[in-house]
């Protein structure tokens, strides 16, 4: 499994270095149309840039070279099915809207799952110069140092982050944010689910909630949190799976209180979707 982690690190690093070079040079465009970062803030959050596709090609190229028999699932390409029990689950640019608006909170997320269970997770935030690596039952590190979730016990003192994921509108997210925000210290939105996950693993925030999210956005981050001592479930407290679209990530201590708060607010949960959707 160490080999797989090394491959994941290489893939994320190569793609991330390409992204940050273009980011610093302001080289970004919505697929097929030149944009100016500030003037396009009205763009939908569900945008795709040339950088998404370029990073995707970098990651897929390396994985085909190093692990040619494995399946590959990426946000840009979809599923490359080789009939393997191993599947790489990748978001080559998580935080595309941030990138296009010249916001440095973007990342590359690379996860390897065996029989749909994440066993290796790597997140590289190139502008922040942070590399997060997790291996199942081997812990999580950030830039080589062990990561651990926070010890916050009091819900009212908690900091949380959230992401609307693939929601078509912000209604359910607004209801969720309101239910939580009025009871905790603060609630923030970063714009990259992978970064928001590893912020929990690092103990920088105490919880992360997201809705209608795709597996490539959070698969690596989920493993990072679990290996850092945190807890990950759906909104009913059931163990999270790659097919689950709503998830709650926390330090584990305030987890049940968050679930109770979401339940009292009547936040509905979406059904699962096939991994390839």
Protein model, in words:
It is a single chain. The protein has 277 residues and is α+β, with helices and mostly antiparallel strands. Helix content is 32%, strand content 25%. The chain contains seven helices and 15 strands. It has an eight-stranded mixed beta sheet with strand order 4-3-5-6-7-8-9-10, sandwiched between helices. The protein has a five-stranded mixed beta sheet with strand order 12-11-13-15-14, with helices on both faces. Helix 1 packs antiparallel against helix 2 and helix 5 runs parallel beside helix 6. The longest helix is centred in the N-terminal third of the chain and has 23 residues. The chain is globular, with a radius of gyration of 18 Å. The protein starts with a helix and ends in a 13-residue tail after the last helix. 46% of the residues are buried. About 5% of the residues have low confidence.
What is this entry, summarized?
Helix content is 32%, strand content 25%.
- Provide the succession of SSEs: HEEHEEEHEEEEEEHEHEHEEH
Question: Sheet with the most strands?
Answer: 8 strands, mixed
What is the oligomer described by this structure?
Answer: single chain
Low-confidence stretches: 32-44
Give the count of helical stretches.
7
């Amino acid at each position: 499994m160490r080999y797989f982690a090394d491959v994941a690190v290489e893939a994320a690093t190569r793609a991330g270095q390409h992204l940050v070079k273009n980011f610093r040079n302001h080289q970004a465009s919505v697929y097929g149309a030149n944009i100016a970062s500030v003037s396009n803030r009205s763009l939908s959050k569900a945008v795709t840039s040339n950088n998404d596709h370029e990073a995707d090609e970098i990651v897929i190229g390396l994985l085909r070279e190093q692990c040619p028999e494995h399946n590959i699932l990426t946000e840009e390409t979809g599923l490359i099915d080789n009939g393997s029990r191993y599947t790489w689950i990748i978001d080559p640019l998580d935080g595309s809207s941030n990138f296009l608006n010249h916001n440095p909170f973007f990342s590359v997320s690379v996860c390897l799952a065996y029989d749909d269970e994440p066993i290796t997770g790597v997140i590289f935030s190139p502008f922040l110069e942070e590399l997060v690596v997790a291996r199942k039952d081997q812990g999580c590190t950030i830039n080589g140092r062990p990561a651990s979730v926070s010890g916050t016990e009091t819900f009212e003192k908690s900091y949380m982050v959230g992401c609307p994921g693939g929601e078509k509108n912000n209604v359910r997210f607004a209801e969720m944010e309101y239910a939580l925000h009025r009871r905790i210290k603060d609630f923030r939105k970063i714009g990259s689910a992978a970064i928001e996950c590893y912020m929990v693993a690092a103990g920088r925030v105490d919880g992360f909630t997201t809705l209608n999210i795709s597996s490539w956005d959070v698969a690596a981050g989920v493993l990072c949190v679990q290996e850092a001592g945190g807890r990950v479930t759906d909104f009913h407290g059931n163990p999270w799976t790659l097919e689950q679209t709503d998830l709650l990530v926390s330090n584990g201590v305030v987890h049940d209180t968050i679930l109770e708060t979401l339940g009292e607010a009547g936040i509905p949960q979406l059904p699962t979707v096939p991994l390839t959707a």
